[in-house]
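Course assignment 3, question 2. Fill in each field.
Student: A.L.
Task: Predict the tertiary structure for the chain below.
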Amino acid sequence: MTKPWFANYPENVAHHVVLSRYSSLVDLFQQTIAKYRQQTAYSNFGAKLTFEQVDELSRDFAAYLQGKLNIAKGNRVALMCPNTLCFPIAMWGIIRVGAVQVNVNPMYTARELQHQLNNAQVDTIIIFSPSTKMLADIIGNTDVKNVITVNLDDLANKGLPCAPVDERLTNTISFTDALAQGENVALSEPTLCQDDLLFLQYTGGTTGLAKGAMLSHGNLIANILQYQEFAKNHIHYGNDVVITAIPMYHIFALMANTLAYFYFGAKNVLVTNPRDMPSFVEIWKNTPATMFTGVNTLFNGLLHTPGFEQVDFSSLKLCIGGGAANQTAVADKWQQVTGVKLYEGYGLSETSPILTANFGRFSKEKNQSEYIAGVGVPMPNTDISIRDDDGNAVVQGKSGELCAKGPQVMSGYWNNVDATNDCMTHDGYFKTGDIAMLDDNGFFHIIDRKKDMINVSGFNVYPNEIEAEVANMPSILESACIGVKDAKTGEAVKLFVVTEKESCDSEIITEQDVIEFCRQRLTAYKVPKHVVFIDEIPKSTVGKLLRRELR
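Answer field:
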């Protein structure tokens, strides 16, 4: 059946791709190593690992897990590490023994960590040493018995300082010692297939405790090959240089940077602490990047960091934003500074993650590419249906909940049948919880999260729209809005605003200034009733605005 969005596919991009060419990610890994053996796969703090070294070191780590800790196929192993060279080595080691990687945010609180370790039934964790305090606080409430600690300087050997392992943890082993022990241990790699579980990718827990999305080898292989086909005109095999600043434990960087661009033979330059923007800019000045992935807040932060405009962007070919909507004001300034269009993708942890991407479309009438704002069109082999609250498909041009079906969609939530049933339609579509619309051009648009919608006097107000408009106001760095109870209108819009630090006293913005600015651009019921100035908008480690914390 022909879909409205197929007209927007580049002429050489297939609507469907064959997904059976690799039996597992290990199969894909081995073929990639053979092809790019001597090239640099990952670099961090100036240290480099070739594809061959990734093969050898991950084999040693897999041998340690299997031979010393008796980790077997299907066992869950937690990886709680920022972007360092240890992350991909640990990841490929876990994958090669057939274990299931449980990706853990190193910034988790003790409560969040305890829930995830217990929910995933983890007894082995690879953990960044500064995060060991959180583990020490709760390890007695878990089944964890094997603790492998990662130091900032491991595999980099640059003398980098790092917080010590919490002294309350006993019987730990360092990552480098585990590698050394595994070097002399035989490895028996199990037979794996696409149906085997690969990752437990925990959702943000915005509506309660985080749930573990079960992602298989087949889910990730599908998304890698779907992206490869859709982005085929933008990939430079063996020659791409990718800056990886969003966390590798987050599904966006995990699939796109850590796996897909590894498969494409790219060099991944890892940024361990992207919040240190001046250092990040210095890394970019020394990196001839061809491709960059990020989120709106990261793009915005770079644009407001002195020295970023002095970077040589001549090698940069592709920039993709995900995780949250790209604001037009940020995207326009990004193109102005870098000379490269900021494209957008859309997906979720439950969908491995990419469902749609927007690289524009080629207009035969104008004989040139044109860009239509939005999250673009579905990946090959992917179907999307926009549905109302009763589960009925709405007509093109009307908004509703975006529901998706495809080989990248998870099988369900780990040990949570009720949540799995709740998120699936009767005909097998995954309900994303996002309000979206398919326009007349065959492009999808995300309007907002269903749960973030504000109801003002019966009218639906979407925070994304307000925040995007406020981004155009001079001297405002960023904003976020929520709904608060109101006696007259049920709910009212409350806007939190961060102003640029370099603003002088004569440019002080008042609450009334913001309200007047919004009145000129927004319908009356969308105008914020309350404006609060704060120093920083709370964000997740990947840069998503955390409206729940503002509430």
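Instructor remarks: The first strand starts at residue 40 and ends at 44. The chain has three domains: 4-17+217-448, 25-192, 453-550.
Grade: pending
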